[in-house]
């Protein structure tokens, strides 16, 4: 028998099933919580912090995509503190990453009034485009580190384990093991990573070539 739990979101009582997240419960009653790294096709990781909400009893903001709904929980999805947090996430992301092909981030920048010049002058992540195979191109200057590609390459779908996080802190990026070209890894070129990429960091080679008629990727 499926167990139900009851919680309050923005003063509305919601009934959901045990195991559902706050994001699931809010969505079920039409409350839209913004997300960036979350994709319903992938296991959530709570990496980007765009979906933060206030939960009664919790001092810190909670990521709705990974917070399980529990009986009696009280959630607020909009407040000045939440907006400030989401805005800061976007401002820091914009300072380091090319968001020109991340529509969800651009929409949230407009929605929250984020000042994308707030951290101007900081370091930008602009690694060279990688075109080491005949199938797709990796442009990690556009990567928002959502981790979806890593997950579909691993337990969420393909079990190929060709890519993972590399580096630490600001220098974190997605990479193959030992930086090997993709054809020398366990990649099977299924293309699922391209399918879940939300930011234009992964593209079919042909699409890339059409956008860059002046020359192939480096
Ligand atoms: Fe929840 Fe990214 S959408 S942390």
Provide structural commentary.
The protein is an alpha+beta fold. Among the domains are: 4-78, Ubiquitin-like (UB roll), CATH 3.10.20; 136-211, Alpha-Beta Plaits. It has six helices and nine strands. It has helices spanning 22-28, 80-96, 103-112, 148-153, 192-196, 205-211; strands at residues 4-9, 12-17, 52-55, 62-63, 74-76, 136-138, 163-166, 173-176, 202-204. The protein starts with a strand and ends in a 7-residue tail after the last helix. FE2/S2 (inorganic) cluster binds at residues 35-38, 46-51, 63, 65. The site of FE2/S2 (inorganic) cluster (FES) has 12 residues, from loops.
Keywords:
single chain; 218 residues; alpha+beta; Ubiquitin-like (UB roll); Alpha-Beta Plaits; 5-stranded mixed beta sheet; 6 helices; binds FE2/S2 (inorganic) cluster
What is the CATH architecture annotation of one domain?
A: 2-Layer Sandwich
Q: How would you spell out the order of helices and strands?
A: EEHEEEHHEHEEHEH
Average pLDDT confidence is: 94
Strand content: 15-25%
List how many beta strands DSSP finds.
9
**Ligand species:** FE2/S2 (inorganic) cluster
| CA-atom Rg in angstroms | 19 Å
User: Which spans of ≥5 residues are poorly predicted at pLDDT below 50?
Assistant: none
Strand order of the largest sheet: 2-1-5-3-4
Helix proportion: 10-25%
Largest sheet, described in full? Answer: 5 strands, mixed
Number of helices: 6
User: Shape, please?
Assistant: globular
């Amino acid at each position: 028998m499926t167990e139900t739990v009851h919680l309050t979101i923005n003063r509305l009582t919601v009934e959901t099933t045990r195991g559902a997240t706050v994001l699931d419960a809010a969505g079920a009653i039409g409350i839209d919580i913004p997300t960036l790294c979350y994709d319903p096709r992938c296991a959530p990781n709570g990496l980007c912090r765009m979906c933060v909400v206030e939960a009664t009893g919790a001092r810190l903001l909670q990521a709705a995509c990974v917070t399980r709904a529990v009986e009696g929980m009280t959630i607020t999805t909009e407040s000045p503190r939440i907006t400030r947090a989401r805005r800061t996430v976007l401002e820091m992301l914009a300072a380091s990453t090319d968001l020109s092909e991340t529509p969800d981030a651009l929409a949230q920048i407009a929605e929250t009034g984020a000042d994308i010049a707030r951290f101007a002058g900081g370091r930008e992540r602009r690694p060279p485009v990688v075109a080491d195979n005949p199938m797709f191109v990796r442009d990690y200057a556009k990567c928002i580190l959502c981790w979806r590609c890593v997950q579909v390459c691993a337990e969420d779908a393909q079990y190929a384990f060709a890519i993972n996080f590399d580096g630490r802190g600001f220098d974190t990026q997605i990479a193959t093991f030992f930086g090997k070209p993709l054809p020398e890894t366990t990649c099977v070129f299924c293309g699922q990573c391209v399918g879940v990429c939300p930011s234009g960091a992964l593209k079919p080679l042909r699409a890339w070539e059409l956008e860059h008629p002046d020359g192939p990727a480096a």
